[in-house]
Design brief:
Elements lengths: L3 E7 L3 H12 L4 E4 L11 E4 L2 E4 L19 H9 L5 E4 L1 E7 L3 E6 L2 H11 L4 H18 L10 H10 L1 H10 L4 H8 L3 H15 L8 H7 L8 E4 L5 H12 L3 E3 L4 E7 L2 E7 L4 E9 L3 H8 L13 E2 L2 E10 L10 E5 L11 E5 L13 E10 L12 H18 L6 H4 E7 L1 H8 L8 E2 L19 E3 L10 H18 L8
Parallel strand pairs: 1-2, 1-12, 2-9, 6-15, 12-20
Antiparallel strand pairs: 3-4, 5-8, 6-7, 10-11, 11-12, 13-19, 14-17, 14-18, 15-16, 16-17
Helix pairs in contact: 1-10, 1-15, 4-7, 4-9, 5-6, 7-8
The structure holds flavin-adenine dinucleotide (FAD).
Flavin-adenine dinucleotide binds next to α1, α11, β14 and α15.
């Protein structure tokens, strides 16, 4: 065995890097192995033709600098602990929704302004709207007052229970409810309920009935408090700062280092084997890969295989990255948009268009007079299986499909088709290949009605093998996998005798 460390992390996504950074800062030695030459996975940036694109994520929570306003500002707390700075730009509108029948709704940072827009369209539902969004506020108030930690750590649970017994009990009770069920208690209007489903779908890729109320309490409330903030330099600024933090405290992130196997001896993880044969040993191993990739690919033991159907598999994405003539973007255009042409198709593949224009907030991402756009829709690998990825047919099919989506975006950006100067497309196969994600999936989802606490935590069936990232509680999203990294690091640090302080 070559190098040794206290903890090896497989994968330099936000979940893995957060785990490593917090452990390293606490004095536990870490090595992160990342298969790519850049950090961040689904939250990375790439350069092409003078543009810097967000590979995936671009709506960011958790950057509010004022700790007195609550505990959900995990990015701000972590970067302060690491002594690394990530400047951000406040986004005044989380998402601008464009829906059928002229239902057009920007979700303003200012909560009252957002609610006033809803009251105007649904005056008959004013009381219901207020009650539903107040219910989300009450969940948010609880979550925002509790420190982040591991739900598998009895010392943490006891501390939270002793400090805030009523809040902890109330939160436990609220985990029994879904976002959609709660909405339907207060609201009857079908168009409004569809919007609430779309609000959920925008981050969870499931309707509101399948989404836990507690998740909604963060996503739909914190946007009006901590707000949405975009890192200067693009999404890649977040993982790059985490890498800086890891290295600052003596840890290392080894790029172009794919882990082929977790080495298990006597039922416990003791290290990893890299592609090429190098073996590295550690006291604990953390996988930042998905649950399917971890247990069906890099843990080579049939006892731990995970049947694909154990979880609902979220779809993957067809993504388009565009460099465009800046004249096509009008003044005051918001950064994030969601477009639905037909309610009957919003949750079908390609039915909802996700759109962002990051250079609207950070002009440094594009050459002068140009803009970067990211447009994506849900898709599956089977839709693209028939093509050889090096064939002209594959390129033509990608181009044709991309053009059909760009034509639909003309609804909010007339003239877009003629303004495109650079186009990069990515199928689910691309997503799978770059990030080692099973069928390019967004990750495992909860079964409708399943309690959010049933989501896998950080411990796994293999002793000393842990998991961090979007296959674990609380799920998908950059702030969610950051929480998962915090809880994973907290659990391991206590096991290794160096418990973390609360952030
Ligand atoms: C198109 C798209 C848009 C999104 N938009 C948003 C958004 O606006 N806001 C938001 O909050 N979230 C968004 N998300 C979700 C968010 O980006 C993810 O949930 C989150 O970044 C996942 O982080 P992770 O650490 O779990 O995994 P990943 O990002 O998948 O990182 C895992 C890392 O592990 C590496 N790896 C895997 N296997 C190995 C191996 N065997 N050896 C070495 N390295 C390995 C991969 O290369 C990768 O770098 C979006 C996701 C996508 C795809």
């Amino acid at each position: 065995m070559a190098e040794t460390a206290d903890v090896i992390v497989i994968g330099g996504g936000i979940g893995g890097l957060t785990t490593a950074a917090l452990l390293q800062e606490r004095g536990l030695s870490t090595i992160v192995f990342e298969k790519n030459s850049f950090p961040g996975g689904s939250c990375s940036s790439f350069r092409k033709g003078g543009y810097r694109f967000d590979a995936g994520a671009s709506v960011f929570y958790g950057f509010n600098e004022d700790d007195a306003r609550g505990t959900l500002n995990l990015h701000a707390r972590i970067f302060r602990k690491l002594g690394v700075s990530v400047p951000t730009i406040p986004d005044p509108v989380q998402i601008h929704y464009h829906m059928p029948a002229g239902f057009d709704l920007p979700v303003h940072y200012d909560r009252n302004r957002f609610l006033e827009c809803l009251y105007r369209r649904f005056p008959h539902e004013k009381d219901g709207i207020r009650s539903f969004y107040d219910e989300l506020e009450s969940v948010y108030d609880i979550l925002n007052s509790l420190p982040a930690g591991s739900l598998e750590d009895v010392v943490h649970l006891a501390a939270v229970g002793a400090r805030s017994p009523l809040k902890a009990a109330s939160l436990g009770f609220k985990t029994l409810f879904s976002m959609g069920g709660t909405a339907r208690r207060y609201i009857n209007d079908q168009e409004l309920l569809r919007f609430i489903d779309l609000e959920s779908y925008s981050w969870a890729v499931q309707d509101a009935s399948s989404t836990p109320l507690v998740n909604a309490g963060i996503c739909l409330a914190d946007r009006h408090h901590g707000g949405i903030n975009y890192p200067v330099g693009g999404s890649g600024a977040i993982p790059e700062a985490l890498v800086k933090g890891i290295e600052k405290f003596g840890g290392s992130v080894r790029f172009k280092s794919e882990v082929e196997q977790v080495i298990i001896e006597d039922g416990a993880a003791v290290g990893v084997r890299l592609k090429g044969g190098e073996e590295v040993r550690a006291r604990a191993v953390v996988s930042n890969a998905t649950v399917w990739d971890t247990f069906n690919r890099i843990v080579d033991d049939p006892r731990f295989k995970v049947p694909v159907e154990r979880f609902i598999q979220a779809p993957s994405w067809f993504q388009i990255y565009l460099g465009v003539d800046g004249a096509v973007i009008p003044d005051g255009f918001h950064m994030h948009h969601i477009i639905v042409d037909d309610w009957a198709r919003y949750d079908e593949y390609g039915g909802t268009i996700y759109f962002s224009a990051p250079s609207v907030l950070d002009p440094g991402l594009a050459p002068a007079g140009k803009h970067t756009l990211h447009v994506f829709v849900t898709a599956e690998t089977w839709q693209w299986d028939r093509y050889d990825r090096h064939s002209p047919e594959y390129l033509q099919a990608k181009e044709k499909y991309a053009r059909s989506i760009i034509a639909r975006v003309e609804k909010i950006l007339p003239g877009l088709q003629g303004a495109v100067e650079l186009m990069v497309t990515a199928t689910p196969q691309t997503h799978e290949r770059f990030l080692n994600r099973w069928e390019g999936s967004y990750g495992p989802l909860l079964i409708p009605g399943q309690n959010v606490l049933r989501k896998p935590q950080n411990r796994t069936p293999v002793k000393n093998l842990f998991a961090a990232g979007d296959s674990t509680f609380p799920g998908q999203g950059v702030i969610a996998v950051t929480y998962s990294g915090v809880s994973c690091a907290s659990y391991i640090a206590r096991q290794l005798g160096k418990p973390l302080d609360y952030l």
